[in-house]
Amino acid sequence: MKNRHLWRGLLIVGLGALALWAAYPPGEKINLGLDLQGGIHLELQVQTQDAVRAETDRDMEILRREATDGGVAGVATNRLEDTRFEATGFAAADRQRLEDVADDWLGNGWSYSADGESRLVFSMHPANERAIRDSAVNQAQQTIRNRVDQFGVAEPVIARQGIDSDRIVVQLPGVDDPERVKRLIKNTAFLEFRLADFPWTGGGAATREEILAHYGGRLPTHVEILPEIRRDTATGRILSQAFWAVEKRQVITGRDLKHASPSQGQFGQAVVSFLLNADGARAFGEATGANVGRGLAIVLDGTIVSAPQINARITDSGLIEGNFTPQEVQDLVTTLRSGALPAGIVYLEDRTVGPSLGQDSIEASIKAGMLSMVCIILSLLVVYRLSGVNALLGLALNVVLLFGALAYFGATLTLPGTAGIVLSIAMAVDANVLIFERIKEEMKVGKTIRSAIDAGFDNALSSILDSNITTLIAALFLFQFGTGPIRGFAVTLSIGILGTLFCGIYVSRWLFELTQVVRPNAPKLSI
Asked: Into how many domains does the chain fold?
């Protein structure tokens, strides 16, 4: 009997000591949420039409390339709308072969109809469009998470707002440079390498009109004009602007990057060194080998960062130069490593929470918690006398285990999370009340102290399990489907409920039985 109590006591003391070790000091071990330590709250909207448009452009290029490889000459593709494009320029005799290529390579995502003998109009299926939009939001969420993780923000909240929504909620606690984080998140970083069409080399054209004049006032369908902005590397101030006519066709994109890292150029300037995957290296080698002497425009988010001349065939590696500062290079590398956003994003809400407000919340929570604990202590001691000490010891251990679990699992304590702690304490008190009242009833019918304790715990067990397990199920659903503060509440409530079951049933019973071991002939129980 005594050995059993000894081992149970060692287990309880060991768990308590382990929790104290995990949570101490709490200022360093407990992660505080946005509402307690300050930070930024962002609500973003993904421009999913950008992803749909990019998918249309990609499929247009696939159709043109595969048709050419399949022997259908002269095929030209042109986007009519975000979800519609046309194929023209082929001979009427080749239409069936072009349709076969479309069936093989565009699959079930597109339908097409003939408009004359040498024109096919393609329309994206609605199911395909919905899948692209949904994938764009999911990919944007993951890309933002990758970027924030590389930035080093502790315990960020990045969640989709609703199942089919195009909005993403981002909460970054403890951020001391919110503007840089917002810039890092929003950067689409869509990297493209395109061939320059006019001027082929040099510093670009001074105005758009100069380029239009070169083409007789009207751009060819395969060409577009993009700006090149040159900045001072020290101040970021715009020094000059030039314009290039570049081919719409992409030689390679950021999707072909295998690795990117900060580096130094020939004159010590900050540049980005990149390495291509196998497919990208093959395409890059073919394009540069066939266009030696032409300009290669490096385009980032629709703006040319540099346009060097191709002097030789380039395969799997190179440099991105653009008068970058070291900080801009580091941010660009972070963005490229995490992948390009599949679509642009806009800020719908931008809210900054100051650390002073978080400190006020902590102080208010401590005051509320202390006041509630004083009321609980007095109530238990007045109503249950020395047996109330049993309940208080269990409550103290419950709180220690809760904070130890938060620290061990790296969970974040939020302001609603403190409400979960208070609710857990209330449920723990409720469990003790059920047990104590049941013990008092058993003693009134003449049972011995030992029998009354056993009967009280056994008969109250079903009610305690029922109330706590149903609450735990609700908390798990809140954690699964909630975001931010709701999940913080669910985390502390779930841990607190598990602690309540352990302390209210196991620890409290051990303490009662320990008093019987120490004082086996006690005439009554102070309850």
From this structure: 3
